[in-house]
């Protein structure tokens, strides 16, 4: 039984935990979250102004992103010696209130697993390129599966070369469709600012390579540069492979399931980072309902696909990204 009780929580602890939370991945780096603190409770809310109205009208990806931030918040509190008690979606009348986290003092020493995972929060970055041929460490996939299950989601690996090829082809088809939709391309333009920007959100030119190597099969990247020649000079050595393709799936397709998928995603990414592995995300096909239904029916055993990822050892340097300051996303209530 857990031996903990409600406790006062220092401002530096809250601030540090929120700083760690916002390092989570979010679709187009929208950072669609807000945190409010009252006594020992930290509440996480979605920021609907940051939802992708065209690509993500339901807010599914917004909630996956917030779920990833929630995982970091939980982990950071544990690392600081506190025990987070999380209630997901505590008020049906306030759908943007995603979680109330009651912070309790923990009485158990911080485990080495928490230490190892926590150390990856800063190291984790999204990858947008190929992977090196180095073999993925034995047991990693089993570890990722377990990690996802512990958070209420599941990992389906595209082991069959045809399934992997089909996922790449569906990503290509989705990219093609979205490229021809003016509403979609304007939305990408809103979230992929030009290199002169002072913004601290969006996918910026420092975050994607100017050219991506052709992998086999090829999963196209999103067109953040929009023909402007933006992007960092790629430094890979030309041996880029596609990596391991996996789907992160859930049994249901509800806001609670999306939050669970987000927590599972971040926990998996932090586990992979412990072995110096990164993930590239290809969620274009999951934004087109017909393609998502096809992927669900044929590759997910009727579970709901939430993310498509390639995992491997990055070829070339990891690119960087930006975040809004904590003061922009956190309020302390009296
Ligand atoms: C739900 C979700 C969907 C995403 N889809 C894509 C994608 O299709 N293509 C891509 O390049 N990155 C994708 N990303 C990664 C984000 O762009 C990335 O997390 C963000 O730019 C912040 O960068 P960082 O992960 O390196 O911190 C996705 C992230 C999330 C959480």
UniProtKB/TrEMBL annotation:
- InterPro entries from the entry? Nitroreductase-like, Nitroreductase/BluB
NCBIfam families, per database record? Rv3131_FMN_oxido
Q: Entry's PANTHER family?
A: NAD(P)H NITROREDUCTASE RV3131-RELATED, NADPH NITROREDUCTASE
Task: Tell me the protein's name.
Answer: NAD(P)H nitroreductase
């Amino acid at each position: 039984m857990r031996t903990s009780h409600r406790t006062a929580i220092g401002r530096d602890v809250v601030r540090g935990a929120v700083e760690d939370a916002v390092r989570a991945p979010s679709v187009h780096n929208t950072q669609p979250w807000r945190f409010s603190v009252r006594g020992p409770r930290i509440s996480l809310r979605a920021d609907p102004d940051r939802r992708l109205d065209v690509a993500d009208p339901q807010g599914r990806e917004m909630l996956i992103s917030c779920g990833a931030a929630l995982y970091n918040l939980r982990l950071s509190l544990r690392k600081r010696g506190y025990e987070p008690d999380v209630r997901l979606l505590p008020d049906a009348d306030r759908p943007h209130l995603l979680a109330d986290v009651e912070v309790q003092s923990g009485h158990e020493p911080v485990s080495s697993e928490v230490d190892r995972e926590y150390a990856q929060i800063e190291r984790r970055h999204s990858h947008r390129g190929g992977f090196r041929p180095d073999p993925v460490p034995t047991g990693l996939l089993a570890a990722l599966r377990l990690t996802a299950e512990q958070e209420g989601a599941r990992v389906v690996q595209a082991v069959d070369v045809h399934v992997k090829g089909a996922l790449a082809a569906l990503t290509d088809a989705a990219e093609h469709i979205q490229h021809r939709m003016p509403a979609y391309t304007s939305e990408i333009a809103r979230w992929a600012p030009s290199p002169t920007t002072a913004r601290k959100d969006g996918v910026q030119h420092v975050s994607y390579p100017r050219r991506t190597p052709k992998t086999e099969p090829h999963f196209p990247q999103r067109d953040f540069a929009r023909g402007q020649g933006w992007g960092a000079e790629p430094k890979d050595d030309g041996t880029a492979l596609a990596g391991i393709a996996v789907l992160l799936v859930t049994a249901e397709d509800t806001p609670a399931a999306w939050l669970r998928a987000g927590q599972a995603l971040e926990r998996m990414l932090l586990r992979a980072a412990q072995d110096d592995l990164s993930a590239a995300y290809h969620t274009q096909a999951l934004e087109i309902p017909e393609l998502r239904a096809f992927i669900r029916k044929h590759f997910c055993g009727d579970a709901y696909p939430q993310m498509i990822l390639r995992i491997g050892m990055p070829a070339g340097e990891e690119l960087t990204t930006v975040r809004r300051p904590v003061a922009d996303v956190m309020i302390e209530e009296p």
